[in-house]
Amino acid sequence: MTNRIAFQGELGAYGHQACAEARPNMEPWPCPTFEDAIESVRKGDADLGMIAVENSTYGRVADVHQLLPESGLHIVDEAFVRVHVNLLGRPGARLEQIRTALGHAVILPQARGFLRENGIASEVCSDNARAAREVSEGGDDSRAALASELAAEIYGLRVLARHIEDHDRNTTRFIVMAREPDLKRRGKGGMITAFVFRVRNIPAALYKAMGGFATNGVNMTKLESYMVGGHFTATQFYAEIEGHPDDRSVQLALEELDYFTDMVRLLGVFPAAARRYESERR
User: Where does the Prephenate dehydratase domain lie (predicted)?
Assistant: First the structure.
């Protein structure tokens, strides 16, 4: 056991924040890409991987769902991070001096309104924490970074504008991945089962495949499609449902799904996080 949890990005990234909040007793392990984070878990350099999958403003994180089925890892938990976007400048910089803001392609649209109002151009960077580091190491007071307050602390930057995201509920969802599945737990808020599948090439196959969840009273909380292998006809689906594979209703629904598919692969079973249903309670 390494007691490390891998994430994509540099120290100070929102993935780092997710690790600190969800696994405070583990050492955050920065990795350049999601592939590297997954590989570090697969090789044993880290015990867990914290992988961003979707943002409430931007949508799903590109390409991640295509990585999950072939990762050889299992989803064992989920974490939700309230993403506060901050404009970070060099210690002597002022807001009115800023002409360019660096940030990841996912975070830039989340502060589009603020940047437009202040006449600040956006520049894509591979990671928000790296953007903060580059601003810190550079000598240009007209350049700033969109990043977390944690990044400001790490790289000695000044918060020029705090919480500038366009939406006040801006949240990123992460999944926690491990080498081995954990099917024994039962969460207080229920369980989530995640899987991928491909429907058979017959008329109305998807409609029929989904029927088993409706007739057995299983709530499907997510269904996303994406292409595989560069073929428009090879559509794969990522799905999440409420329940555990040991539940009789889930068993019946998955049996019916299997009849109309040529591939079903379980990706993980994990407790539903309390924050998953926060918006429903408001």
Answer: 4-179
